[in-house]
Amino acid sequence: MSPLLQIPPLGLRFQRALLLQLLGILFFTGIASARPALAQEVLKQPVTVQANNETVKALLSQLEVQTNTHFMYSPQVIGATRRVSVKAINQPLGEVLRTILSPVAVKYEVVDNGIVLQPTQADITVAGRVLDEKGGGLPGVNVVVKGTANGTQTDAEGNYTLTVPDNATLTFSFIGYNTQEVPVDGRTAINITMGADTKTLNEVVVVGYGTQRKADVTGAIGSVKAEEIANRPVANAEQALQGKIAGVTITSNSGAPGAAPNIRIRGVTSVRTAGDDNNAANQPLFVVDGMFTNNIQFLSPYDIASIEVLKDASSLAIYGVRGANGVIIVTTKKGKSGKARISLNAYAGYQEIAKQVKMANASEYQTLLNEAILNTTPNATQLFRGPGYDYGNGVNWFDEVLQKGFIQDYQLSASGGSEKSTYSISGGYNKQQGIVKGQDFERINFRVNNEYKLTDRVRVGANIAVSRIQENITPGSVFGNAYNADPAQQVFNPTTGNYSYSLNQNVANPVAQLAYNNERNKGGRLIGNVFGEANLLKNLTFRTSFGTDLGYTENRVYAPVYFVSQNQRNDRSRLGRQTSTNSTWLWENTLTYDTQFGDDHRLTLLAGYTMQRDQNENLFGQRNDVPGYDDDLWYLNVGNAQGNIANNSASEYAFQSGLARANYAFKDRYLVTATFRADGSSRFSEGDRWGYFPALGLGWRLSEEDFIKDLGVFDNLKLRASYGVVGNVNVPSYQYYARINNGLNAIFGPGESLNIGKTETNPTVSQIRWEKINQLDIGFETGFLDNRLTFEADYFDRRTNDLVTQVPVAVGALFRNIGTVDNKGFEFTLGWRGDVKEAFTYGINANLSTLRNNIVSLGNGGQPIIGGSLGNGNVVTRTGVGTSIGEFYGFDVEGIFQTADEVAGAPNQPGGKALGELRFRDVNGDGVIDQNDRVSLGSPIPNLTYALNTNAAYKGFDIAVDVQGVSGNKIYNGKKAVRFTNENFEASRLDRWTPANPSTSEPRVSNVIPQVSSYFVESGAFVRFRTIQLGYTIPRAITESFGVGGIRFYVNALNPFTFTNYSGFSPEVGGNDAGRGIELNVVPVTRSYNAGVNISL
Amino acid sequence: MKAKHYIIALASLSLSMAVSSCQDFLDTQPLGEELSENFFATSDGAVQATNAIYNQLRDFSVHTFSFIGIASVASDDADKGSTPGDAPAMGELDNFTATAANGLLDGFWQGHYLGIARANQVILRVPDIAMDDALKARLIAEARFLRAYFYFNLVRTYGGVPIIDELPPRDGSNSSRARATREQTYQFIIDDLNAAVEVLPVRSGYPAADLGRITKGAAQGMLAKVYMYQKNWAQVLTLTDAIIASGEYSLYNNYNLLFNLEGENSSESIFEVQCATLPQGGGGSQYAEVQSPRAPIPTGGWGFNTPSEDLNNAYETDDPRRQATIIYAGENLGDGVTIPTVIDNPRYNQKAYVRATDPRSPNGMGDSGKNIRILRYADVLLMNAEAANEQGSSAKALTDLNLVRKRARGTSTTVLPDVTTTEQTALRQAIWRERRVELAMEHDRFWDLVRQGRAGTVLRAVGKNFVDGKNEVFPIPQNRIDISGGLIAQNPGY
């Protein structure tokens, strides 16, 4: 019996074998586990052969006999006539076959009715294109033959060509995308679509002084990627973070272009009542590519690759005394080796006031004013005095001073590199007009991020950003004056043509104010660092980086000679010039040891030493009599030397710190992060200079445990907890020095000369230290359904001890470490990424955080901190033990006095009682309404902050809608309470109480200074559509015919809708922390509409 | 291997820099700021710290808006002015409806205590400075006068107030104190003024360059006034006699010019707040601006504190002082300025008027060089007259009184005849009336009425809402009560 003869002709036989194999793959994978056992048996049969220079064919025949099996093969392919020598006694068939066949790269495979022999490989050339989920070519994708070093990268269009064995498996990998393995199976064209990485566990997040696998993180870190930031047409990337991360509250308290928003991470921990430290006290630290800074105004949002927000002690302690308010780590885009990627982004649009409060018109104002005067001064004879024309609607001052502000933004970037170096270069231009006429902001920004591999072990690089800002500033009071101005006045006096003024009030003519205003800021900034990194040993990396932040701002204010009225005039022209420079350098050195021992232990150790010095200087000069006709003359030397004013001030601080961290993971499931930083700061007296900040974070990835794995539900389940101490160094410096205040000059002598006067005016304390924040965080993260559904929850408890605040004393106020504040809350983040179906993709991200802010104790006998001055004598907030910071405090309005009997029967109350006036509640029921009847009227701090961010794409179209809201907070409508001089009224006051209209909600109008009461307190809850964006990407096929990689057009609206019951301009009201949530006529946040294009080459 | 050398070099450089810089890297100091301990060790420091107290006298919170409200608008001499509805806080002072929330009252309180704190710096720290003893003593005495003056304004406005006579505690503890009684407050003032009288040189004893500093005469005059508020007539008499006998002062011959630029620091001036129009600005006060006529004229201002009809009618026929005190609608002021006939208020305070021909600060009217007259010789004569009359020396009283009237009448032979009555009550009334017109709009009237015990009668007669036993003092600002943790008690009725 010649088995070979029983087999059909070779070609056919071979085909059948292949077919069988394929069938096996296609249909019998279900019993694949059984097959190896059978194959093993066949191949394990012992055989004995002794061949000396025999043909392969003969040998195979011998073996067929011994094992009672068939070999199926093509004699040419396996070289059947080749002669071999083999000696095997009782050896497994498999071994013998390998000895015979492997030299000729022939493999054997057991099939049902025998053993197929075939060549292991045949090199073929595969070409194809790798696409992203939107259908665009994906450049830079690594295409590698699995198990080899043979590979290539896709080009700019996503194309690749690679010669591979025809039975090879290709591995396609690219950061941020799921790695795919595709068997070649003899094909010569393989196109694939890469899906974004859904296994977020392999993501790397940036942490302080390094990166970490997201899975290993034990702290609470929020992360935002470039795409989410670049979506918003904002000049300032901080605004783009709004609503993106749970626990991060960003309030745009001013709509002035270029104005930085307030950022509060996990509540409010500091209370300052005065001075510039207010905002800084609670503002987080920014770390841009390793460089510390206090804002990111110099950055184009398009330059940002990712933003990480560190929220808990475990992640923050590495920043020690500067970590208390959270740290925002910004990583800018770096180059990747490969062909240059060039992109151009441009948009244009306009912004406008989102909501105007309706004011009384001229005739309504006249009516209300006359009533108010009589209600203020009974029997007053001088009532409204107009110029004698028909008042009608009069002037709407908002229309006169506001405009639609044009916005434009262009950003161009190029990145790429070789194996030895990478680069990313970008430049951009942003210009915005504000919503107040004459207001504008212009920024030019450049950035270069380069990195060079000097040797296999040494890398150097630089990240440098240069920006220049120029802005025209309008006086802050213009908006308030438009609110207050007399509508029965004209802009210009019709007879003289000059700006008019009101006979009824002292409010400046806001149009004239803008006309005579000339204030300009120019600034430049260079921020960046150079670094060197070396692998000292295999696992030991040394990094040193030297960074600097150099900035200057030039302010120029010119006031021409003008006369509008007594209260709005300038008799001598005046030029003021101020130059502020700041320079910071930061030198950081770290050693990182990264190791793995056994299969179960991973350990990363970090140690570092850093130094920093900040210097600021301010130089101001002013002269009079500078001509106004040409702004080229607006330099001090043109002015009058007599009457020269010059001022100069400076400050300097230094930091010196040591830091260390250990990250340990056992079996990828038990995680420990131990962190420590020692900070020395020159801001404090020698004995109080050093602070030590330890933190411990623990994590348990339950999803790695078998009992969870067996459930088959969780793709990820992690519990984590951290506790530690961080510090807040943003407290007034050098308070331990009692200092002298200059400029308190006196006049003496017949010549009335100025005699220098100085003295110590501020009470000081001998010791003041940083605030210490002890923070506990307990959280869990989980992912289901292939991690398309993710959920993260955190509980935090931040306790600020040694709270620094200005404590009013008998005379003045001083800073002290006093009191304890608690911020507790929950944060929830829910993410859902829809299945990719029929080119339709969508995603939803929702977050919600709660906050309870509570003063636990205050030194100074628990005396409350009073703040929130309206400037009219009303001070509206009180921060006391058991309250939140800056709660509104005053009388509770019970109603409005409706009848004379009611007035007569009511107890006396501050400000008097009268028909139509607010009636205050006798809280303690003692029959007298006095200061003891004042109560808390609510907190300005929202107890609930939430956001919903959604996006969807379908065949080139994409849409994104971001919604954000807060609730539980109150706003003090302070602008309504401030009346100095017959200001205009809001139209809502037309519904005031009068005998004919016995309103129960609107008291009578009057000019009397109102008592602080619940009448002015309104709910600050709102839901705001932050962004609605619609985009369309032109199909690749079309754009590529033009040689362009991709073109996307979009339109968007920023803050298009707001739902709120608040009656003022905007429910987003900033303010300092003992006086936040008070609306006093700042330019409100704006609404904008833009159209833009993204082009990639 | 080259790289390895670099690495080692870099690492050792880092290490050596780190170690070597450890020592003094963190020793930074405030830049451009003098430290108290150094400043208060020098003679210059002592002088400059004393000057800083004077500086506070020009402050808005001390001698400007609140001041005219409390000391003048509240009285029958003046109305609020400006336009109806403007500055309701001022209106509250006018009508005695002010509550503890009134911002002007809070500003006044704070401004005065800041002045007191500056005085305390000198009084408590200058003694330890090694310097010329005479100068040291004089500076401390100046400070004590000024502290007393601040307290005098406070006690007249609020009644007894907390006495702060220490430096702010360096341990940061709350230095709030409870109110002293009215008597204790006055005793504190008297002690300070007595100490000042002891040491201060007379007016001519100062070098010219020190014109405007507190003199012995000023201290005696202020002390006399304090005693007058106590009805301690013997002391009033002794002190005013001493001033008269000193020969340092005489009535300025022209009442009309007394309040102009040429009348600053005149022979009659005893204590006036020195303000100057400096080329660079910053030497003046807002005193004139808040009171200048509210009209489209180069010298226009806010137009508060307008002379009342009652004051206008209080002058005897053709008393020249009326024209010198009151600006009327339509008046030609002789400096190129004519007041419009149609204007918010029929009258304005001429004593606070800065003429268009006077130098002007680059900062405008808000920084005018007008000196604020606080105490002048005519007041001393009238105090002397009142004390003499109360002590039964009507002849002496009449001499003083008629000296004042004589100067007022100028060259006229028909107006302001000499007062001749020797009957005590009638003479008292005559002296009071003379005080009113002589010192009209000089921020004396309200406190004078309260002192005389007739504030209620007089003010109710002009339609004010004055409640006896309550409105003699104003409410303590609620903010101050709150800051003291309730230690400070409110005045009755508020």
Can you tag this structure with a few keywords?
heterodimer, A: 1097 residues, mainly beta, 22-stranded antiparallel beta barrel, 5-stranded mixed sheet, 19 helices, elongated, B: 494 residues, 21 helices, globular
Structural write-up:
The complex is a heterodimer of chains A (1097) and B (494). With 1097 residues, chain A is mainly beta. Helices cover 12% and strands 46% of the residues of chain A. Chain A is built from 19 helices and 58 strands. In chain A, the strands form 14 sheets. Chain A has a 22-stranded antiparallel barrel. Chain A has a five-stranded mixed β-sheet with strand order 15-20-21-18-19. In chain A, β33 and β34 form a beta hairpin. The longest helix of chain B is centred in the N-terminal third of the chain and has 26 residues, at 133-158. Chain B has 21 helices and six strands. In chain B, α7 runs antiparallel to α8 (133-158). Chain B is 49% helix and 5% strand. In chain B, strands 1-3 form a two-stranded antiparallel ribbon. Chain B has a two-stranded antiparallel ribbon with strand order 2-6. In chain B, strands 4-5 form a two-stranded antiparallel ribbon. The relative contact order of chain B is 0.12. With 494 residues, chain B is mainly α. Classes of the chains: A mainly beta (1097), B mainly alpha (494). Chains A and B meet through α11, β32, β33, β37 and β38 of A and α1, α2, α3, α6 and α7 of B.
